[in-house]
Design a protein that fits this description.
The structure is a single chain. This protein is an alpha/beta fold and 286 residues long. The protein folds into two domains: 13-74 and 265-285, Rossmann fold, CATH 3.40.50.720; 78-256, NAD(P)-binding Rossmann-like Domain (Rossmann fold, 3-Layer(aba) Sandwich). It has helices at 13-19, 36-41, 60-65, 78-93, 96-104, 130-141, 155-160, 168-174, 194-199, 217-223, 243-250, 265-285, and strands spanning 25-28, 47-50, 69-71, 122-126, 145-149, 164-165, 177-180, 205-208, 229-232, 254-256. The strands form two sheets. A seven-stranded parallel beta sheet has the order 6-5-4-7-8-9-10, sandwiched between helices. Helix 4 packs across helix 6 and helix 10 runs parallel beside helix 11. The protein is globular and about 60 Å long. It binds nicotinamide-adenine-dinucleotide (NAD). Nicotinamide-adenine-dinucleotide binds at residues 52-54, 74, 77-78, 81, 127-132, 149-152, 181-185, 187-188, 209-211, 233-234, 259, 261-262. Nicotinamide-adenine-dinucleotide is lined by residues 52-54, 74, 77-78, 81, 127-132, 149-152, 181-185, 187-188, 209-211, 233-234, 259, 261-262.
Length: 286
Amino acid sequence: MRFEVCYSPGISLEELLHVVHDYHVLVFRGRLRIGREVIDRAVNLKVLARYGIGLDNVDVEYAIRKGIAVVNAPKASAISVAELTIALMLMVFRRLYSLVHEVKEGGWPKGKYIGRELYGKTLGVVGFGNIGSRVARYASALGMKVLVYDIRNVSQEVVEIGGRQVEFEELLSRADVVSLHVPLTPLTWCMINDKTLSLMRDGSVLVNTSRGEVIDTYALLKHVDRLGGVALDVLEQEPPKDECLWKLVRHPKVIVTPHIGAETEEAMDRIAEELAKNIAEAVKWV
Ligand code: NAD
C-alpha cells in the first residue's frame, strides 16, 4: 500500500481546518484537539491515527458515527513510560535533581541530601494496564511491596507478582509511593484531589506519568509541603502558563519532565511501526 505523505508538525488548528478536506488519513499527537469542527471539515477522511496512546483529545464517538476509523499505538510506549516512572521514583528518593544541580554549580553537597531506598517500600499503582502492570513488575523486582487499584478485577495478575488489589482509599493511606497510570476519563478527571490527597501519608511520594488532568493542581499545591516529593511527566497545561501551575513546577519538592514518557528511540520506532500497521489495516475496511 502506498501513501503520499504531507508532514506538518507545527500546524495550527486554523491551518488544519483549511486543509483537512484534502486527506484520507490524519496522523496527530496530543497537541491539537480533534473535535467535531475538524471532523466535519474532513470530508474525505477515512482514518484518524493518534501517534501514541491516549485518545482523550479526539471525539472518538463522533468520528465513528461519521464512518471514520480511529486507531492508535496502545502498547508501543509502555516499556519507556514504565522505565521513566521508576527513574522518577529513584530521582525523588535519592534527591538526584538537587545533587546533580549543585555539583554542576560548583558545589560538593556530600552529606547534605540523605536519600531513601525504594527497597521494602510500598508502591501503590493506580491503573494496572499496559504501563501500570509493568511498573508494578519492575518495582517488585526492586523489592517494593505492591498495592494496586483498578476498576477491573486484576487481582489474579497482581497476586502473581506478589502484590494485592485493594480499594483506592486503602492504597492511598498505605503507600509510600503512589503512581498514576489511568487513562483520562470523566471518572479519572481530578481523582487526585483535596479529599484523596488528604488520605496520603506525610512524606509519601506522588508520581504522575499518565495525564495531567488526573490531578487537581490547586489541591496538590495545598498538600505538597507535607509530601515527600512529587514527580510529574504530565501537566494539565503543557507547557505550563497558569500561575498556579508555575508555583507547583517551581516548588523545591516537585520535579517535572516535559511529557517525555514515550520519547525514546525504541518507543518512537515501535509507535511508528504499530501505527503504520494499524492504518494500513483500517483503510482496508473503511
Ligand atoms: P491502559 O488502558 O493499558 O491501562 C489503563 C488502566 O487503568 C486499565 O487497567 C483500566 O482498567 C484502568 N482504569 C481505567 N479507569 C480507571 C479508574 N477510574 N480507576 C481505576 N483504574 C482505572 O493504559 P496505559 O497504556 O497503561 O496508559 C496509562 C496512562 O499513561 C494513560 O493516561 C496514557 O495516556 C498515559 N501515557 C503517558 C505517556 C507519557 O508520555 N507520559 C505515554 C503513554 C501513555
